[in-house]
Amino acid sequence: MPVTLEENDALSRIRLEGAIDIGCAAELKTLLVQALNSGKEVRLAIDGATHLDVTAIQLLWAAGQAAARSGAGFALGGPMPEGIAADLREAGFDRFPVPECAT
Amino acid sequence: MSMASNADQFKQSFREEAREVLVDLEAALLELNNHAGDPELVGRVFRGLHTIKGSGAMFGFEELAAFTHNLETAFDEVRNGRLAIGSELIDLTLAALDRIRAMLEEGASGTAAADEAACTRILTQVRRLTGVKAGTAERRPGAEMAAPTVALAAAGGPLREWSIRFAPGPDLMLNGTDPLLLLGELKQLGGLSVKASMAAVPPLAELDPERCYVAWEMVLLTEAGPDAIRDVFIFVEDHCELTIEPLIDPALKPASGAASDFALAPTADLIARALDDPRSQGGGRRTYDRPDSASSLRVPAAKLDQFVDLVGELVTVQARLSELAARRDDPEIAEVSEEIERLTSSLRENSMNIRMLPIRGTFEKFRRLVHDLARDLGKDVELTIEGADTELDKTVIDQLGDPLMHLIRNSMDHGIEPAELRAARGKRSTATIHLSARHSGASVLIGVSDDGGGIDAEAVRSRAVEKGLVDADAQLNEAEIFALLFQPGFSTAKQVTDVSGRGVGMDVVRQRVDSLRGAIDVASKPGAGTSVTLRLPLTLAIIDGLLVSVGDACFVLPLANTLECIELTSADIERANGKHVADVRGVVVPYIRLREHFNIRTPRPEIEQIMLVETEGGRYGFVVDRVLGNCQTVIKNLGRFYRHVQVVSGATILGNGTVALILDPERLASDAVRLGRQGRRAHPAAHPAAHPAVGAAPGGRRESARTNAI
């Protein structure tokens, strides 16, 4: 599965792998909503992702906005592949839609 | 839905859209024949080819995209004034469109690859015209998609900055289009600065994960013109908001330097200006989300047919409810019944409107036939079209192609004279085939006329006698002679050609028109031309009717034909001296007694009703006992046993479960005329007006043949 959710007592981790596109957009939304509603810190792992399409980017952006409004912890929990960063720049996004983890 | 079925669906959508684009391309190419070099037409052809190429590559039709690319290159050369458009390029492109069509169909049926020899032959000739070497034209479609418009960027225009705002429609990605690919394509035109706008992205809970909410503000520095920029978005233009505006006076910029060397210095300011544009402050709502947004859906025809069938069933049940409500003296039931009647009527009207299509597509297809036949026959012929926006039921339109094709082939081959004969007759060297459509009551009249030599009635008659179709001493008027043309195997052609002459075509026309419950009129003037008119019902499903009764029998008259109702008393009959004519405000109108016509043996009431109807042959009255009122009429086929019944176009089931025959006023009137003529011939001196309407048929009716059949 390109989109998975792993949970422990303190953390929900959403892992994206391979190409994340419209084919898994519905699943990504479900897991984002579930993770943000869990009351736990949410971490996004994209080090295995090769491509994010517009549906994925806008979902992550909306999740980041929702987390900021509710005060939930939502951050990038690992390195960002250079290919993804370049794709985002090309597509006119000046930064990744989810903030990097402060710790 | 699985990704695989999504992909199949996208491919199917592409095929359907590509077929439409091909029709438009063909029309534009044929128009170019007469308006060589018209920049608008050249642009139309270029854009059509670009759409097919771009969408084709995107949906996995790589061969098709690569093939189309060569043609697109040729028309880009035409567009830039480097290649003159001529009949050779037009003919080659028309042949190429046939190959593209075949590739689409082969893809649909899963059969082998397109006819490579034919494709290669066409490409070789196109390359010869454009001067492009084979190696450069045969790039792989994938690479082609990555850099499709480099040639446009190098068009050598002045270097300008453009502000581009691109807001994809919400379903863009569902249709298989990735907006990021378009940005990549735009980048090939020059220096591009991009900023994504998330203003329209809704909160996570409300976000539809498969819709696209992101918009882009861009600044592009390029030598390409606005058309080339717009071409990038050509196959999504109908599904997005797109504005392309120049930002800086071109005089302020040097017109040299490759686009790729450009540094994006001024763009931050320009983007800020673009973002200040009130159009980008949409409050997160785009035009697509507005309730009155114009959009369209592609629905399989079978689903629509099923829908109309169900509406037909509903109309029948609603009639039963109305009947029940009329019998029960219960105001509550009556109120519900009236409400359902109103809604059913509205639903019926809407569902029928969905099936109505303009005939333009069918007509336009024949431009190619006329063009090809004219070339093959060595004749100079132009096709003119009138009333292309006339709408009729899709079921009827679907069956019109064959009859029209046979009529046009016949006109081209036999009707239109060779050039030298036209010159000798003092006619214009370019002959005309005229296709027309117009509404007439509940019918639509489709005309095919030519300015050829006309029909030699005597030759038709002699041939019919020779073939044993009529006796040598038969007395036939011109209309009856022309009707012989539609007999199976009848042909007056001295020579059978590739085009016509086997006597099959006209029989096919008659059979198809019969199956549509239509009629054929032929009018011809020797030396001046021939006109064939097909009278077809607007719809084969549900019509507004007027329910009338004669004795115990009920009949439906199509409301579109009816004008008014007047009383007929014994005194009126006496005043007319027994003739079947009525005085309607000083105008004499012949009438037909349905009681006599259908041999209904019940006594007639003291006061009868004359329903006045308008027909192509003039105004007639139909005498009935009572007019019962309007009714929504679901047309049911009478079946093959009644196929020879001339005057009934079908039947319908009334609310009380009885069956009413739907009358065809045109046929009823012409049938009465025919019976009257026969009666006069049989008893020229003693014809007491078995069908006196005949004798009083309205004047001014042209001599014509009409073939009728169920």
Neighbour order of strands in the largest sheet of chain B: 6-8-9-11-10-22
Fraction of residues in H or I helices of chain A: 25-40%
* Poorly predicted ranges of chain B: 135-155, 250-294, 683-710
Strand residue content of chain A: 25-35%
Name the average pLDDT of chain A: 89
CATH topology of the largest domain in chain B: Heat Shock Protein 90
Distance between the termini of chain A: 28 Å
The count of β-strands of chain B is 22
How many domains make up the coordinates of chain B?
5
The CATH H-level homologous superfamily of the largest domain in chain B = Histidine kinase-like ATPase, C-terminal domain
Could you describe the 3D structure shown?
The complex is a heterodimer of chains A (103) and B (710). Chain A has helices at 25-37, 54-70, 82-90; strands spanning 3-7, 11-20, 41-52, 74-76. Chain A is an alpha/beta fold and 103 residues long. A four-stranded mixed β-sheet of chain A has the order 1-2-3-4. In chain A, helix 2 (54-70) links the parallel strand 3 and strand 4. The longest helix of chain A is centred in the middle third of the chain and has 17 residues, at 54-70. Chain A is globular. The N and C termini of chain A lie far apart (28 Å). Chain B has 710 residues and is of the alpha+beta class. Helix content of chain B is 42%, strand content 21%. In chain B, strands 6-8-9-11-10-22 form a six-stranded mixed β-sheet. In chain B, helix 1 (3-34) packs antiparallel against helix 4 and helix 3 packs antiparallel against helix 4 (87-109). Chain B is flat and about 90 Å long. The relative contact order of chain B is 0.06. Residues 135-155, 250-294 and 683-710 of chain B have low confidence and may be disordered. The A-B interface holds A 22-23, 25-26, 28-29, 32-33, 36, 53-55, 57-59, 61-63, 65-66, 87, 90-94 and B 3, 6, 173-174, 178-180, 183-184, 187, 194-196, 198, 201-205, 207, 209-214, 216-218.
